[in-house]
C-alpha cells in the first residue's frame, strides 16, 4: 500500500477524487438549475423565491469551489467541462421552470440526488481515513437535509 503526502492510501484517494468529481458534476447541474429558476420564476411567490433561489445558487457556487479544491488537495484534477458534467449527471436538468411548485420540487429532487452521492462519499472517506473529505460531506449533508425539510414544508409535504 502506498501513501500520499497527506498520509492517505493513494488508491483510496484516487477513488474518492473520482466520487468527488461525480459530485462536482452534479453540483454544477444543480447550480445551473438554480440560476434558471431564479431568472424564470413567475407568480405571486416571485419576490420570496427569487431571493431564496439566489441564496441557494450562491451557496451551491461556493460548494462547487470547495469540491473542486478538495479534488486538487487529493492530487487529482477536477472536472471542468459541461460535457463531463452532463455525462455524470444524476441531478435532473430543469428546462424553463417558472412555476413556483415545480421549481421547489426540482430543488428537492436535486438535493435528494446530491445527498445520496454525499453519503456514498462520506462512507468512502471514513473507510479511507480521510477526515477532510469526511468533514466536508458531513457539513454539506446537514445543511442540505435542512433545506430539503424546509422545501418540503413549503410544498406542504412531509419527508
TrEMBL record:
The record's section on CDD domains has: DPS
Limits of the Ferritin/DPS domain: 18-157
Q: What SUPFAM superfamilies does its record include?
A: Ferritin-like
Q: Which InterPro entries match?
A: DPS_DNA-bd, DPS_DNA-bd_CS, Ferritin-like, Ferritin-like_SF, Ferritin_DPS_dom
Into which family does the record put it? Belongs to the Dps family.
State what protein this is by name.
DNA starvation/stationary phase protection protein
Amino acid at each position: 500500500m502506498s501513501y500520499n503526502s497527506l498520509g492517505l492510501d493513494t488508491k483510496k484517494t484516487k477513488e474518492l477524487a473520482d466520487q468527488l468529481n461525480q459530485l462536482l458534476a452534479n453540483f454544477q447541474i444543480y447550480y445551473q438549475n438554480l440560476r434558471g429558476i431564479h431568472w424564470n420564476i413567475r407568480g405571486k411567490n416571485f419576490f420570496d423565491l427569487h431571493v431564496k433561489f439566489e441564496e441557494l445558487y450562491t451557496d451551491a457556487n461556493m460548494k462547487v469551489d470547495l469540491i473542486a479544491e478538495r479534488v486538487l488537495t487529493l492530487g487529482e484534477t477536477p472536472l471542468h467541462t459541461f460535457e463531463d458534467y452532463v455525462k455524470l449527471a444524476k441531478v435532473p436538468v430543469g428546462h424553463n421552470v417558472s412555476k413556483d411548485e415545480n421549481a421547489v420540487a426540482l430543488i428537492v429532487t436535486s438535493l435528494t440526488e446530491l445527498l445520496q452521492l454525499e453519503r456514498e462519499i462520506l462512507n468512502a472517506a471514513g473507510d479511507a481515513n480521510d477526515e477532510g473529505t469526511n468533514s466536508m460531506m458531513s457539513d454539506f449533508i446537514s445543511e442540505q437535509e435542512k433545506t430539503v425539510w424546509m422545501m418540503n414544508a413549503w410544498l406542504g409535504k412531509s419527508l
